[in-house]
Amino acid sequence: MEKKDVKIINQGLEDEMEVWGYRPCPWKMVLVAVGAVCTGGLLFLVLYWLPEWGVRLTCTRTPFIRESQTLLLRSTVCYFTHHSTKYYWNDLLQNFEKAGKNANGFQSGFNRRLFFEVNEIAVKVPSVFKLLIKEVLNPFYIFQLFSVILWSIEQYYYYAAAIVFMSVISIATSLYTVKKQYIMLHDMVATHSVVRVSVYVEEAMSTELVPGDVIVIPSNGMIMPCDAVLIHGNCIVNESMLTGPICHNKRCYGFSTEKGQLVRSILYPKPTDFKLYRDAYLFLLCLVGVAGIGFIYTIVLSIINQVPAKTIVVESLDIITITVPPALPAAMTAGIVYAQRRLKRVGIFCISPQRINICGQLNLICFDKTGTLTEDGLDLWGIQRVENGSFSPPEDDPANETLVRSSFVSCMATCHSLTKLEGELSGDPMDLKMFNATGWILEEPTEEETALHNPIMPTVVRPPKQVLPEVNQEVNLLSYEIGIVRQFPFSSALQRMSVVVRKLGEKRMDAYLKGAPEVVASLCAEDTIPESFTETLEFYTRQGFRVIALAHRQLEAKLSWHKVQNLNRDLIETNMEFLGLIIMQNKLKEETSGVLKDLRHANIRTVMVTGDNMLTAISVARDCGMITPHERVIVADATPPKDIQPATINWHYTENHATSKDNCVEHKQQEQGYHFAMSGRSFAVITEHFPDLVQKLALHSTIFARMAPDQKTQLVEVLQSVDYTVGMCGDGANDCGALKRAHSGISLSELEASVASPFTSSTANISCVPNLIREGRAALITSFCVFKFMALYSIIQYLSVTLLYSILSNLGDFQFLFIDVAIILIIAFTMSLNPAWKVLVAQRPPSSLISGPLLFSVLTQILTCLAFQVLAFLWVRGQNWYEKWTPLSDACNVSSANLTHGPNITSHVDHKNIRNYENTTLFYVSSFQYLAVAIIFSKGKPFRQPSYKNCKLHLCIVNCIVCVPHEWRITVVIIVLVNAAVSFLLESANERWCTAFLSWLFCRKGKTPRVRYMQVAQELQEDPDWPPKPATLQKNIFNQACQLITNSYLQ
């Protein structure tokens, strides 16, 4: 397909699409209609399941999409709706684009409303009838319908009725679950409200809002009905994405809001690309191939034996329904359902059950720090002020009366974004801790004061009366108030916030600044920064403290109130005076170290992704055991290109290491483990300017500090690009992107992150992670066991029927019913009940059905069952009492005396050749083969509890052992026991030696690993210059190569 015929929409984004234009073709449509009539409507069903084929078979492609009448997305050409988002044709761009990108020309609110339509996230709850039709048209149920019709023609009424009953129960359960989920999501997002729109000075429903409207937020707050930009005044917002954040976003209505994007991701999740499911379809195709062989064999054999045409058609189609088990999807789902219930019992809730299996393959977990590894709240440990250009001793009480008038305490009391809601202070928890530590009082102007004065009345803070000096106390109380004139809110990109204030009675205004220490220091005059700044900062951050720096500046006298309101923050936040440090303590959660130790022993790599300071993150990583004491930490400090200077990377160690030239010492250091650490800025520079290092660093990077939310998502993608199966554990809205992008996201919050994440833990610590992995491994092994069992069940029954077809016989209605319901269905569901093993082991379960050991296991069991069925089939025919079948034969009801001496006859007439010795023998032998295979495939440790603890499975197996023919019983039992012993020995040998044998047979040793991160690890082992020594790596602008410039150790 030529690229010029393709239009790309949302290029570079998560929902990027390629669009082709088509026009209806009359002659193709006629051919499709004829084909549908000839196939009895089956062609329409196939085209319903594969809509792309439907477009290609009924239309011709056109190179001009604007002239096309149909898109491959099955929409009209003027606009189309995909995943609740409308795309309109843009004549200038000659491409489709999202609605709302070019609405600036609409000045009239009425025109804008026509263009943008309704501002709502409409989660439509489909009717039961629609859900029923969609469910029934599933290929699985269509195949079951075909099977039921075929069995009814063969007069297998009881068996067909049992399958219909189970299908109805399955459909009803599925409909109830899907309907319930739709209703829950609809109720969660359907929040309409009445808002004031100042453009018309009127009230309107939130559904009528369009881009360009200006909303007046009431003093008592509101739930934001859209994304918005704050253009006047101050406000505090909850970070929850489901209550509508205020953010600078051009897409600000309906499903285009941040909240809408999240809901869309729930309604239209990305397909789960897991190898198990892909391999399952390939395995089913193999079974279809086996069924094709049986189909041809049946037709040829029936023609040779001059069987009527109707019987040939029915029996040849019947072999297909035997080989492809209709109950396979339900049986494989059982293990996941049981795992989901066990997870619910330990407080882990799942909205995407299919991802439970993926959890069994996780080999790397990313953790947020604050609130995940450490406690959520911060406690004020102390302050360290700067006096006369140097740090004073640490102090633990900023509310001390001697500090009331200090610039340091004034900065703590004013530089925040707190406000009062219903009489209570609200805002960022860290701001609350800092402000409460001062003991000051915050007063906000009333609505009347705000309306009366222009400019608006400022928020005022003042110290409490009792902490002021006793002399002239009342005068001091009245004179010492600070009004917050303007606020520059905290920016995660800038890592700081500032305020402009005026003290009561003073002409000049002051600016106060707080933020990350390194950022604040860069904005201060050098002579105000203590010489021991770096050492002091490292002293606290190495101990895991979170450090905030404060700064002050007295503004020029000429700056008036009105001028300050229009100033850019960069003009304020410069040439500041460094005031000192606030030291906040963030303790590790009790469970953190133990969980990380368990993950380490299980060879599951752990990574910290945080917005906090680099050294604080490294300290926490050492404290919790993510980095052990003997392992080195190499910091990759990258700087972007500037002017003619290229991008560079400085490699240095966070701790002193011996610089001895002794070869033994250097060799010992090379053997030590090492970890890379980098900041968000370095991560961005490396991914853009040093792409050849990205995969190498991904292999050993453990600390990612100062990471923005979108960088967390990008990091998950980088780790996935080297074939890691990535889990993400976080607790906030800034983790939502990474939680969605990871193979398995685990939220410790029951708010917004829980909707973005497939898993939510009601216990706010990371102990849920090993529980989830253990259950995932158990569910994955269960899926393999059930799949192997169901495949063997089909093949065993296929072998029995094929052998019986050779004598023009078959299994009876009640025999099929007994095998499929009393044996297969019950065992398939009870063998999934084994709980997860109690500890995480280093070994991981296999991820593929198409693997040597698994295929070898299935093949050996098939050959074993075939051998013993053929043995029993031929052996019974060689007995001296054996007689060929006649319509009056009934092998099951012959007494012991008649078995040896009398004819094999009874008063009942058997026209279908069911009651014969071959049928009876194969029925019992195959029944025990099902039981033997179930026991052999029901794996226990190291991923599941041992099978002998599964009482329900054993009960079902005992109940299935029923009577066998009288004289022939001992022989059949011997055949069954020997069969079981051989099967068990073969499976044990397969588990022990198959992998090594196949590696030797196909010369796998020494070959390149299949997963990318192992390939990179092999390359790094052969690289003598890795890990890099302390040095500077510079990007060569001309040839894009990296060369070593200087060597310098950073102490």
TrEMBL record:
Entries under InterPro entries matching the protein: ATPase_P-typ_cyto_dom_N (IPR023299), ATPase_P-typ_P_site (IPR018303), ATPase_P-typ_TM_dom_sf (IPR023298), ATPase_P-typ_transduc_dom_A_sf (IPR008250), ATPase_P-type_domA (IPR059000), HAD-like_sf (IPR036412), HAD_sf (IPR023214), P-type_TPase_V (IPR006544)
First-listed, main subcellular location of the protein, grouped into a coarse class: membrane
UniProt entry keywords in alphabetical sequence: ATP-binding, Endosome, Magnesium, Membrane, Metal-binding, Nucleotide-binding, Phosphoprotein, Translocase, Transmembrane, Transmembrane helix
Ranges where the P5B-type ATPase N-terminal domain occurs: 14-96
P-type ATPase A domain sequence ranges: 199-244
TM ranges: 29-50, 159-178, 280-304, 319-339, 784-808, 814-833, 854-876
Membrane topology: Multi-pass membrane protein
Gene Ontology annotations of biological process type: intracellular calcium ion homeostasis
SUPFAM superfamilies: Calcium ATPase, transduction domain A (SSF81653), Calcium ATPase, transmembrane domain M (SSF81665), HAD-like (SSF56784), Metal cation-transporting ATPase, ATP-binding domain N (SSF81660)
Cellular localisation: Late endosome membrane
A Pfam cross-reference name: P5-ATPase
PROSITE patterns given in the database record: ATPASE_E1_E2
Molecular function, one GO term: ATP binding
Gene Ontology CC terms: late endosome membrane
Homology family: Belongs to the cation transport ATPase (P-type) (TC 3.A.3) family. Type V subfamily.
Protein name, entry field: Cation-transporting ATPase
Species the sequence originates in: Oncorhynchus mykiss (Rainbow trout)
